[in-house]
Records
---
Amino acid sequence: GDTLWIGTRTGLVWFNTSDYSFGRVVVPPELAWIDEINPICMIEDAKNNIWISFGNLNSVVCYNRATRRFTDISGSKNPLLTITYCFSMAKDRQGNVWFAGDGLCRWNVARQMVDTLIEYSSAAQTLNGYVVILDMDNDNNLWLYSWNNGIIQYDVTHNKMYLRKKENNFWDGD
């Protein structure tokens, strides 16, 4: 059977789908705050690591399944991770992990660091940085949603953004 990780108000819980047993995910003492802050989202990367964001400023934690260790990538080690709260995540074709919140940033898997920060979309009409990742498509486009701007397509390969205007999408029924 599979084991699921579930984010709860009192931390992370594991759940075995075969026998329905469960328990707390044990975290190291330096990350004890994980048990006190709600997880917002999780994603598994190409190397089976689990990335988790919490309701903590500029905070993302990575769990390496091979070593069974947690790493907090926040703070001075990754000064470009300044998106306030990470509301959503996606992985691109190169295996990098993208975080969205008050801006968009990328964990570069080859460099093992956050190496990109896009504070607001260059295609946006209103400079409001909050974005949510809707999905990553097979052409390496991140599809984003911005409350004040609508749908934004970010071509990761060519570093280009396109605002998909309301008159050309599903909002008006055309």
---
Amino acid sequence: VLNRVPQILMYHNWLTRLIRGILPFAFVALLKGASPHFESNFGQADHDFPYLSRVANTAVYIQDRAIEFRFPSAPPIRLSWVQATQSNLASQNWTLSNPTGDTKFYCNQPNVNLCRQPVPAYAQLTRISLFPNLDWALHASGQNLEYDLIVHPGGNLADAKFRIEGAFARLDAE
């Protein structure tokens, strides 16, 4: 048995190095594989953002007419809807739908109440009447966050204009 101790220690050290080398990559793979979800802001972020999302290691903050992406090592990107008329600003009707079944508890200090407040996750967040007869639906598509504009009778897609601000902002044809 004493002759086998160096072999067991060698095996243990090798296994420990292997796990330390693989674990960070496995964690990143898990994050990348996670689908985005939406949650109400109960104090886990600045009160200016009523809804939040996370896409891998990117925090997504959602306001009434804007969405902001905050990255760990790059400036934020903000997509803001440009309102055609002042009357469009009145509606602030949001709907969370398609519960994922996930619930989180945030234990942020000094707000200890977040430890007791369940925060359910949803697969879709819809802003009703972003423009007259146009809804803005945010949802997951695989590992990506996407949005749709839902045009109801009487809606005009030409009313939907937005501006993109921030470094590295780009708009793909899709």
---
Amino acid sequence: SNTVQSVQLDLHNVQIGRRIMESKTKREQRIEGTKENIVNVAGDLFAMKGIANVAFDDIAKEAGYSRTTVYSHFSSKDDITNYIVLRTMNTVLNAIRKVVKSTAQADGQFRLLCYELVALCDDNPFFFKCMLEYIDASPEGRKNDPVLEEIYQVGEKLNEEFARMLAGGVEQGK
């Protein structure tokens, strides 16, 4: 009887643990969705009005959140801009990896990469502008901001992938 109760208690604890894990996952998904929504709204507002002309209150109102909610995800407009840069750089990294994995010759890969970058830029011109203009890759900046360090690391991966593509072209004599 004690063994049966012990097994039932263990089973009950496992079920509770699963529910906690599932709710954390849903909670994390909700948090990430909120963060993405804030970034998308902020990006649109920044593109329309300029970063300097957009207040946190504007972002919160347009996104449908309180100012506190926006601040719980981002402490400043620079944080939002850095997140935009990181997201855009990851998109570019995925594009270059896709091209490098293609079976095209090096000159074809280069053309494919150009087409990919133009399409990405056409879809999100402001995000590309942020990526090209607002990156602080200084050691001091990276030391104080983990997102800047992550941006730097993604940039290094971009350089590696591009170098790999160029090396393939040299090997092919293209």
---
Amino acid sequence: LPPAALLLGPEGTGKHALAEHLLAYHRVHRSDSAFLHKVDAEKARLVVHMALTAPPGSVKVIVMRLDGSGEQAQNILLKALEEPPEPVRFILLAARPPLPTVVSRSRVFRTGYLTDSQVAQVLAQLGTDVRYAPCGRGTVAGALRAARRDAEDAQRVRGMVSAAIRAAAGKDFQ
């Protein structure tokens, strides 16, 4: 992991999930990571303190959602982002670019929406029946989690309707 990674992309493009996968890939234990949402000035000071006082040893990763964080909070983080102690890494999540000074101190990884065919391919790999995925209808705008949820909901509803029809067909109607 670079000292500071910025996962930058629209809402719903898997930035949080990607951060979790990076932690797992690099075998970062849960006790060596922290997830912070909406970092204000007070939380930013706490993050800087945590970074500067991190014990040596295994890598410590601080994941922060910067959306909604003000200029003051981002400015407080700059020193820690510029020269983090050796065991500390930052993963920053943002839908919109943070301050240019934060961006310049980070390695930027852009995320984006998947195409319909990419959504269908991933859903098939996950074992979801792609016939019920809303691909091509513009309902999920390439957001995989929503597509999978919608496809699974459609499968459940179809199963309930089929069961109701089978039950009704077995009865005599007058």
